[in-house]
């Protein structure tokens, strides 16, 4: 029974508004396909399980062995999600086939029975699917899954899509020519993934899973294996594993599930493969090293020296993975494991917050690739004293192993778990169909059943009734048992530690930390001070869009409310205030990122980090903080019963901020440790430097160096951020399932009670954020692999609301540019795995936008990238895109916006700021048309406006010690030294 709370998920926000979404097709009377299992049968996924069946699923099995599951789901409207899972991943490869499972994933998209060479991507785009998000695939150690989220669906479109997918799965063209064409793309992907991160990952796998297939079979494969691949050798792997018996199909969406089942039958029932199915290889068990001392369970350890990476420690307890019967009792035990780890992790986090010797620490449990059942502990020492950090972490865990938790601690964690499972039940009608489709293939992968939200809540309640401090203690002890203990330590200094010292430290007796547990506290929102005198509503009127209300209070705070029941149990809240990045003087720059990390954790009123956590126990609350070009934002997803307290937290942060020094110190430590790691790869250097250089060396975009961080202080942090919290108009947006009258009363007590806001100086509001002009190519250097580089080219556009409709047409032009660049750099040259072009058009300031192209590639191909980008930009100014190119750009855009425009959060984002700027409300009308309707002439005019006047701004990141010999287009090159 896969637990959706054990992995982060994003839910769709869906309900029909403004007639922007195509209506669900009327149900048709269809015959029940013969392959569907009868209601009296136990569905194949529930065999040997007493988990209650999710009745919304229909399951079937074809005579050739294919199993499938189908269900109806209208979230988002008009979409169908298809997943085809092959029970073969990298662990199924022989020694001479490393990387073949992943290579096959690529080859199935290259050419197949119904799709000619390189036709898959444009074909799916014409059907409205975006490559990479709606159309994708994944290869793991244990499976390969082909994914399609098909928008704007009807029976004919579904039929065509299933036909195309069946041709990909059943009859790919595995020729030598296709292998030769695809291998460079896979090697480009390997290169982009590679370098320091890949080395650490491979060494970690080899150490933690020593003696098992998982240790030696990296999914991407090796260069030798990939370069030696041929149509015949890859075909042998395909023939061995791509068989009906190894295939599971999941189809979920906004049509009759009987139609889904009939399509599976139509296109897969006659798939026959000769020969006896191959047996899956033995993945192996974790075993101690030969001649290991039973009294010394510490096995393989590794010290991984990487000068550009911060210190990081991982150790784990490894037990054999075994197939289990997925029963209710089994899942109760899994939930008790989750409870035990939650208790430990809260204590570890509290110790880090209080000034512990580590930046972070976390314990987790996982059944990894059907190879091991492991408990892992990971932490980052704050200094070179890794032994003190290890002792701290082990001390917290030792206490959990020696003494049962208090009932108060358990109640707190149980309340947190309960709100998650209860919220799933409340929101089940708006859970996205793509998530359900993924749930089925993931359940098959781990050999467990699938369950409805009500079942999860039922099992949780059953576990909760049985759990006692003693049973949690026993579960904790089982988690930290195992015949095999292994560890890795990543360090920038070879002199830090030896492998022998690592083993010794893990075997040293450790005392249970006597201060690890959190003291019981009873904190209630009812006991918190009022923010001020409740404010008077001076205006309340329709806002002009749907049922949106505009509220204004006497202190100038405005609010937009849209109450409805289309998304049960969901309320989206956003607060906008201040001037955003414009608010900072150049000398304040180091405090910007520190504020992003530490401002919210610094607390409010009498509440510090721990108190904020405790007071929100058992609630669905959040506190996201954003810094945009022209505004600051607070955001959260909450629910009706927690809305009042959520609004209090947001308003109190503005009205009664707290200035706890510990979060600032922790943020400084994290930023200092991260700084050197930026130099480890081209992508890291871009994360550190791109904004600074692309915005014409504007100091507010400069990543603070360790020295600059050292010069910051808690007092300086407060001096910068305290006036910002008090400045500028405040706008509150509340969209979702809540009561409007109660919300207005709460707003009066919270935001309406804030003191009058300080004005923002006109000079601050006039600060412009501008893209650097074209000129010399900025060259930066990284310390990673010699075959890695990155290139960026950018043209300035604009910003603000005056030309927002033009920005939407520019999005179409950007998609055309991106498709052409992908074709040139990936499909034709094999030089880059995922080159892309993106449009940035800020709406809260009137400048700073850009069209920016990016690629990771080899250093020798940097000039090629610039030349291709220049060529495409020039051609777009001379010849308009073809109708087919426009269709490939507009269909995915249209379908994307039709899908997201059916939910509360979409309207919140589109209407934010409209209490101060009515143009935002007006711009909402016609949005879909702006993204989906254009002409070749309009594209030609835009290309000439933005690409015809000047060359693009350029930046290249290359390895240290190399030179960028030439810059395409005649532009000169300037090298910027590292910081």
Automatic annotation (TrEMBL):
Keywords: Hydrolase, Metalloprotease, Protease, Signal, Zinc
Signal peptide: 1-27
Domain Peptidase M16 C-terminal: start-end pairs: 232-415, 730-890
Peptidase M16 N-terminal domain boundaries: 79-192
GO biological process, one term: proteolysis
Gene Ontology MF annotations: metal ion binding; metallopeptidase activity
Record carries keyword Nucleotide-binding: no
Origin: domain of life: Bacteria
Family: Belongs to the peptidase M16 family.
Matching PANTHER family: NARDILYSIN (PTHR43690), PROTEIN YHJJ (PTHR43690:SF17)
Protein name per its UniProtKB record: Insulinase family protein
